[in-house]
Design a protein that fits this description.
23 strands; globular; about 25% helix; alpha+beta
Amino acid sequence: MSDRESMEYDVVIVGAGPAGLSAAIRLKKRAEQEGREISVCVLEKGSEVGAHILSGAVIDPKALDELIPDWKDLDSPLTVPVIENHHWVLGEKSKFELPHFIMPRFMSNKGTYTCSLGNVCRWLAGQAEALGVEIFPGFAAAELLFDEKGAIRGVATGDMGVARDGTRKPDYQPGMELLAKYTLIGEGARGHLTKELKRTFDLERDSQPQVYGIGLKELWDVDPAKHVAGRVIHTQGWPLDDAWGGGFIYHQANNQVAIGFVVALDYKNPWMSPFDEFQRFKQHPAIRPLLEGGKRVSYGARAINEGGWQSVPKLAFPGGALIGCSAGFVNVPRIKGTHTAMKSAMLAADAVFDAIGSGRSHDEVADYQANLNESWIARELKGVKNAEPAVAKFGGTIGTAVAGADMWMRLLRVGLPITLTHKKRDNEKIRPANAQTKIAYPKPDGQVSFDKLSSVFLSGVNHEEDQPIHLTLRDASVPTDVNWPVYAGPETRYCPAGVYEYVGVEEGEPRLQINAQNCVHCKTCDIKDPTQNINWVVPEGGGGPNYPNM
């Protein structure tokens, strides 16, 4: 028998990101317009709304215009319009700017804004609460709840006060069951509940595997003389060689610059370190001068969906649906997903609202999928569906040309006659270390480039140390029997937070040590581990990074 208390709502939403909050706002606005009552609860595992939100970000307000038409009059954080848009191709010492005329017009960033997505979510939370939405930060949705027919009937939050050995500490508190007619899952890329839902309901049966990138970001206070609010720069090329990705530099409000680097996680070389590639990127002669004399104030990392339209799974299941990055609506060439995440959530909210209004519950809201397939999300993502797989298949130079040609042709309603595929998951692409070239990264200079531990400090990460490790191993022998001898311990390099290290190497007895307190919840280990032995689950609510305005 469960000793957990329960609370009932019409709709429970997991995740107070742009999708989850948009769904909540849409539900309440529909109820207000139609004179109905609907109870909505949003669970957020971060210590506050926005604490776990990390994005560039350059935001297309298209969905926001639909959700809150008068947002410009409501003191929103979208205050810096993009006024310059640049795309650089970098060599080690060179820079070539792609002419605007060869870029598809939807990549111009016209009408977009650069800002902190975390602050956008904090603002959206205020709008939601004003409408009567109940938001519970610091409560992690740890478990799916099923009814007797196998439908989702809600979620349970994790127990608090459990010691590392699994015993109950004096401050133990059982989790709470949040029961709902429908449950919307908006926990972001590679969410642990989403993984279970995909397996349970075979949601990926008719889609291709989702593939990912890792995005690393720093926020800098720079010299006002070097700052141009609204300037946006994207890069490709150096420092990456046998991998794909690129950098971004966004001049935001208050003389701050958001600078970051994205690496596609389908890379082959286990010696690759996305973190160190980012630090090396900042040393480029076209970039370093911007940062010199400035101050780095924040750091973080997060996995990004890169599969595109062909990797979007079935969205609805009995009792709920996937929204936002839980499903994967990122437009990779535009490097944007906030607007599509919000719109998907609004469509899900409409389907759920109509279902509840007709007396239904715990069934499959098929209207959501049908309406999304006819929406501008589908049109937008279908127009760029071959971009990422073209680069993955043909490499940076040729792949960019193929992707660009296909996007231009699709604007003319032609395009390639085929849909390029993602045949393998990211973890299946990695190769044995002895077959790849070892990469020697320069030591950080402490001025523009830095080490992992000083970077993690700036993420504000914090976990209760005496709790079960949330980075679980399905087989504890795999790190020493497979990862270390075959792949040279790749988790020590693909993790951007220094969570994984091998101790006892000098004594000839390597053993994996997991520093779970450093985890910034990026999910890269869950994606890239060669044998999928690492399984990321939620720690106690409130743990993880505390991003101020990322």
